[in-house]
Structures are given as C-alpha cells and as structure tokens.
C-alpha cells in the first residue's frame, strides 16, 4: 500500500543496519539464550577481525579458516565466562592470537622435521612470534573502520575505500574516472563522506 | 590562518601537500583545538588503514560458523533414549571429508557433532613418535545442563573394541594413542539410558 513502510523481510538486517544496533552486551545475552540470529550477528560483526588477524599472522587461507572456526567454537563454549562484555572484541582477538601462534609453531616444527623442506627452517621459526599488542589494536581499529564503512551509503563507502586502500593512491582524475563521478565533485564529496564516516564511527568507540 | 578542511588535513597527513602549505597546516593544527581534533581522528583512521583492508572471511566459512549454534534452542530439542546417530556440525579443517580427519600433520582438528540435545566435541591430534598415531579427546556437553555423571566411550574397528575410556566429571574422555584407521565412536551415558554414535570416524595417516 503506498505510503506505508514495507515490512522488513530480514530481521537480522534490521538489527544490523537499523538505529537500534545491538550492543555487544545485548548480543552476548541473546547468544547465551541460544538466539541464533544474535549468534549470526556476532559472527558477522567479528568474523573479519578473527579471519583478518589470522591472515595478518601470516597464515594461508586454509590455516586461517581453521583458526577462524576454532576461535568461534571456543568463543561459543566460553561466552558465559566473559565477565566484561565490552571487551568481546579484545577477547576474540586474544583467542585468535593464541590459536594463530600455535598453528604457526606447529607449521614451523613440521618445517624443521621435514628434511626435504626447501625453505630455510630458520625462517619458519623466526615467524612464530605471536602478534604484538599493537598489531592486535590496529586490527581491532581496522575492523571498526569496516563496520563504520558498512554503515554509510554505498557511494561514500566506495569513495573512501578507494581513498584508503587503493595502492598506489589514485589522483583526483583517476578517482573520478574509477568512481564515474565528475572531477569537480571528488573533493567536496570526500569531505562529506569523511564526516559521515566520523559520525558512523563515533558510536563504535573509534 | 583560517581553519583547514578535513580534506586538506587528510592530504597533509598523507604527505600530499606542498612543503609551504604543509608547514602552515602543521602549525595550525597544533594551535587550533578543532583542527587538532580532526587531525587526531584522521591520523587514527590512516593508522587503521596502513596495512590495507582486513580480509573478509569467505561466505561458506561464515555459514559453517553460524551452524555452531543450533537452529533449535537446546531446551526444545528432544532427548531420546537409546542410540542416536550424530551429525557433523563443524569441522575445523576447511577441506571437506565425510566425517573424516584430514591426514595433514599441521594442526589438531576440532570436530563438533550434534545428536538430539547433546553436543560432542572432538579434538584429534597427531602424537609424536615413529609410528603414526592420534590422540583423540572428546567431551559430551548438553547446553544448559550439567555434564553427564558417568560416561563410557569406545572406539570400534571391524566390530571389535579397539580402545575404550571413561569420562571424567566434566564429560571429558581421552584415547591417548589410536592408530590410523576407520572407526566407529560410541559414547554411552548409562544414567540416561542413551548413547551417541559417530560413524564413520576416519583417522587417516599423514601423507609421507
């Protein structure tokens, strides 16, 4: 019927994108009550952090996927033990660091044992240092940034992603061509989009 | 100097401004509270993006992780007496094998099986030594309920018991050294008159 809002077909999307995005504390409470939607949201919210950290620890796609699943299973089993819900992100990152480190150590041991290994085993051992606190913090911030980018409109998201992640950085002319917008609009649009991102990130503690 | 736009501060932080202009912006952001705050925020943003985007987990991986939490709440899942065949819910290795264990020696493998209202966690690790063997650790859990008081676990091979173990107070049981092979795992809880079966459980030798 014209003038009436359409019912939301995807309640998860509504929670995810709507004004009333669940806090981590609410999310945990609902997961502990076996709320499947909340669990899916938790996995989506922190999946990039967990998987991304495993990748940044130098693991392959397959090993990162193994770590990802082990971390989430561990989290599911121990969610009730988490005293401070606001530290969910750090808690997950810490479990990921431990799992990624253990995986790297196992891989290094294999490389040492395998006499046919062509790579220098010392390289493998050298890479078994756990991720530093600063790396964890950077990844948490990067994950927040992605959440912020998900909250703004597509045009701005594309523009900012081009701005932040495109290597080598694009000139104004190249960015305008890449995004299909007039050259003169890039500068002011970028300012507006940065402001939108700032607002989106404000509530996420960035 | 009048205030800089966020855009100009952004270019300044990325070293994209001409030297003279950069000097003006630098001294302005140290004096102007508003521009200083914008500069701090943009610097944090740039630090977060310095290593490139965080890669997103593949969609299939997300789907598997969703399955960790059952679709039906534990309370509504029916507990039956007798034997139940379990379903593999999660396998920590990405290469799918039908309820089997990839023979790679690179990592322990976590498997989660579900039968009625109970979850059975398995961890399979290679043991050190000349002969290939695995240490299999299991735990039976019923979400929202205490661990089963008594529990017996048996690994069957060719219709004979190859190994058996009793559970502890947490529902944990261990088979310390299991040779590679095809097995059936049975976990029996006498007090509840029910058991869970995993079949087949393939423990494969690592490739030589």
The major pleated sheet of chain A works out as: none
Basic shape of chain B: elongated
Order of helices and strands of chain B: HHHHEEEEEEEEEEE
**Unreliable residue runs of chain B:** 94-106
Query: Largest interface, counted with CB-CB under 8 A?
Result: A-B, 54 and 48 residues
- What's the helical proportion of residues of chain A? over 70%
Report Rg of chain B. 28 Å
The tally of beta strands of chain A, per DSSP, is 0
How far is the N terminus from the C terminus of chain B? 71 Å
The helix/strand class of chain A is mainly alpha
- What's the total helix number of chain B? 4
Characterize the quaternary organization of these chains.
Answer: heterodimer
**Which structural class fits the helix and strand makeup of chain B?**
alpha+beta
Low-confidence stretches of chain A: 1-19
Work out the strand percent of chain A.
Answer: under 5%
Q: Mean of residue pLDDT of chain A?
A: 80
Fraction in helix of chain B: 10-25%
Q: State the helix count of chain A.
A: 10
Provide a compact summary of the structure.
The complex is a heterodimer of chains A (206) and B (208). With 206 residues, chain A is an all-alpha fold.
Description:
The complex is a heterodimer of chains A (206) and B (208). By secondary structure, chain A is mostly helical. Helix content of chain A is 71%, strand content 0%. Chain A contains ten helices and no strands. Chain A has helices at 11-17, 24-32, 36-56, 61-78, 88-113, 121-126, 133-151, 154-165, 172-179, 183-202. In chain A, helix 2 (24-32) packs across helix 3 and helix 3 packs across helix 5 (88-113). Chain B has 208 residues and is α+β, with helices and mostly antiparallel strands. Chain B is built from four helices and eleven strands. In chain B, strands 1, 3, 7, 8, 10 and 11 form a six-stranded mixed beta sheet that branches. In chain B, a hairpin with a 2-residue loop joins strand 4 (109-115) and strand 5 (118-126). In chain B, helix 1 (6-13) crosses helix 3 and helix 2 packs across helix 3. The longest helix of chain B is centred in the first third of the chain and has 17 residues, at 33-49. The termini of chain B are far apart. Chains A and B meet through helix 3, helix 4, helix 5, helix 7 and helix 8 of A and helix 1, helix 3 and helix 4 of B.
């Amino acid at each position: 019927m014209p003038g009436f809002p359409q019912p939301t077909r995807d309640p998860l999307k509504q929670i995810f994108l709507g004004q009333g995005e669940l806090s981590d504390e609410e999310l945990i409470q609902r997961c502990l009550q076996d709320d499947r939607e909340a669990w899916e949201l938790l996995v989506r919210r922190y999946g990039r952090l967990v998987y991304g950290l495993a990748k940044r620890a130098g693991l392959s796609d397959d090993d990162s996927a193994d770590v990802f699943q082990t971390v989430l299973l561990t989290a599911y089993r121990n969610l009730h033990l988490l005293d401070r819900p606001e530290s969910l992100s750090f808690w997950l990152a810490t479990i990921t660091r431990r799992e990624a480190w253990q995986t790297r150590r196992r891989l290094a041991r294999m490389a040492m044992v395998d006499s046919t290994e062509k790579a220098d085993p010392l390289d493998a051992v050298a890479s078994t240092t756990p991720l530093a606190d600063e790396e964890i913090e950077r990844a948490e911030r990067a994950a927040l940034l992605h959440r912020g980018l998900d909250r703004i409109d597509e045009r701005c998201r594309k523009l900012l992603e081009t701005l932040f992640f495109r290597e080598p950085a694009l000139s104004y002319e190249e960015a305008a061509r890449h995004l299909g917008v007039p050259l003169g609009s890039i500068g002011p649009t970028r300012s507006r989009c940065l402001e939108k991102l700032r607002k989106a990130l404000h509530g996420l503690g960035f | 100097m009048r205030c800089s736009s966020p855009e100009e501060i952004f270019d300044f932080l990325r070293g994209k401004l001409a030297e003279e202009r950069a000097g003006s912006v630098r001294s302005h952001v140290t004096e102007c509270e508003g521009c200083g705050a914008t500069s701090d925020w943009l610097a944090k943003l740039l630090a977060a993006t310095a290593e490139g985007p965080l890669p997103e987990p593949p969609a299939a991986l997300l789907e598997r992780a969703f399955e960790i939490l059952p679709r039906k709440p534990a309370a509504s899942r029916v507990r039956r007496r007798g034997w139940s065949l379990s379903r593999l819910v999660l396998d920590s290795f990405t290469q799918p094998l039908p309820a089997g264990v990839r023979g790679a020696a690179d990592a322990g493998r976590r498997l989660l099986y579900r039968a009625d209202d109970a979850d059975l966690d398995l961890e399979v690790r290679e043991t050190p030594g000349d002969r290939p063997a695995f240490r299999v650790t299991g735990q039976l859990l019923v979400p929202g309920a205490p661990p089963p008081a008594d529990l017996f676990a048996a690994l069957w091979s060719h219709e004979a018991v190859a190994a058996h173990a009793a559970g502890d107070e947490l529902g944990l049981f261990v088979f310390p050294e299991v040779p590679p092979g095809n097995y059936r795992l049975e976990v029996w809880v006498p007090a509840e008159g029910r058991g869970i079966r995993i079949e087949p459980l393939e423990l494969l030798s690592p490739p030589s």
